Amino acid sequence: MTDTASFHLDRMNEAFAVDGFAVTRERVAAFAAATNEHRHDYTSGEIAPPVFAVVPGFEATVAACAAVVPDELAKSVVHGEQVFEFHQPIASGAVLDSVSRCTGVLAKSTGTLVVIETTSHERGKLVVTQHMTCFVRGVRAEESRGALPPAYEVYGRLEPAQQVPDKFDLDQTQRYAEASGDHMPIHLDEKFARSVGLPGVIIHGFCTLAFVARAAVETTCSDDPGRLRTLRARFATPGRPGEQIVTTVKRAAAIGDSEFFELDSVERTSGRPLVARGMAQVAN
Predict the structure, then answer these.
(1) What single string gives the DSSP state of each residue in 4-28?
(2) Can you tell me the distance from the alpha carbon of 98 to that of 88, in angstroms, rounded to the nearest whole number?
(3) What is the location of CATH 3.10.129.10 in the chain?
(4) What is the CATH T-level fold of the domain 153-284, as seen in this structure?
(5) pLDDT tens digits for the chain (284 residues)?
């Protein structure tokens, strides 16, 4: 039976900011190394991989979520969905200002969805918009307010498919935590992870998404990763250190000046889904 709790709905839409985040070659290169990137423009720190976009505003994103979710429920929060809308690439030398706010709290039969919107600007120009959905397991808010992130769907036919194999390293979570600033204990502490019902340390959702993004870039726009306009994912089950994964990229449709691709990632041996019905929008 799902419990009910009072979320801090009065703090919805309260703004949390991280100003003056300097995008250095060292920061970008460290993130690229932590997510096993091998493109020279990423590993050299010249251009940031797509999912690096979470880093400049990460502290604000966490603060916006923590403002609404009661403290005692923090350990029950898991990453549900993620949407990145890229307006321009993030390059070394950029200085970004980010603002996060909670835009939705939605009670469901199995828990509560908390929606966080984060925008990052460079000198007033929009660089990236993010919508993150957090799911509070087993606890329903007393009421719902706000709305879900923009809906998305997979269009038309799904062919041809390309499969990209990859593998999480045994020390993946430690490296990612250092590069991203996400030190949640479910990713670093086996005992703690088991105490909250997990099978052990799990891969960060954003780290998993970085692997999926790499597969999307390699198969759809390797000549120019700046063509990636939107990256969307629904997290199904968490990955584990040492697991082999396979990401499938399927061309879905061409609409206007963009092509759309469906993304799915599974654990290779069991077929357990990690990311389900994700999508990449790529400019022609």
Answers:
(1) EE---GGGTT--EEEEEEE--HHHH
(2) 15
(3) 1-151, 153-284
(4) Thiol Ester Dehydrase; Chain A (3.10.129)
(5) 468 889 999 999 999 999 999 999 999 999 999 999 999 999 999 999 999 999 999 999 999 999 999 999 987 788 999 999 999 999 999 999 999 999 999 999 999 999 999 999 999 999 999 999 999 988 999 999 998 877 666 666 667 789 999 999 999 999 999 999 999 999 999 999 999 888 999 999 999 999 999 999 999 998 899 999 999 999 999 999 999 999 999 988 888 899 999 999 999 999 999 999 899 999 99
Q: Which CATH number fits domain 1-151: 3.40.190.10, 3.10.129.10, 3.10.580.10, 3.40.30.10?
A: 3.10.129.10
- CA–CA dist 284, 276 (Å, integer): 25
